[in-house]
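User: Last request for today: this protein with nickel (II) ion, please.
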Amino acid sequence: MQEYAGAMQELAKSIAGVLVTNMGVKRGLWEDDCNAGTCFLRLNRYPPCPISPEVFGLVPHTDSDFLTILHQDEHVGGLQLMKDSKWVAVKPNPDALVVNIGDLFQAWSNDVYKSVEHKVTVNREAERHSIAYFLCPSYESFIGCCKEESSIYKKFTFGEYRSQIQHDVKDYGHKVGLPRFLVST
Ligand code: OGA
Ligand code: NI
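Assistant: Here's the final one, the structure of the complex with nickel (II) ion:
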């Protein structure tokens, strides 16, 4: 797992680097911060569920990091993403990894890159496994917009973002996410 996490860290940073460069800015300071011990691997296991497909394996959500690299199960499937107001299945491809933009990248890019909503449905017969690597900055790093003057989000730290999510989950039962940090007009 350590080896895998190391390889994903390198890959995630190089993909993030390309996306940052495409925004026409120099590589962000936060890239060095993403060496932080806040990055993590999540190993998901979805047991078979006879009452599928009404049951979620994972409820609809966006990832709260910069960038996620997902190795989904090679056969079972179940991952879906929201595209043009419709859920679209992400077909398993044994030769491909799935890359998700997270909330922090959306904030940093001022909505140029979108943190895509996704969910997992369970399978009636087959168990499914996936491994997700989350590229995160240190809790103290400020996530400001790369084009500061026209920023639609307030500047916030990753630590603030995480604790806001925890409060919202406690108070409302779900994550509110980026809308909390919109600059009020
Ligand atoms: C996640 C996630 C998808 C999957 O862990 O945040 O979206 O296919 N996982 O397990
Ligand atoms: Ni996710």
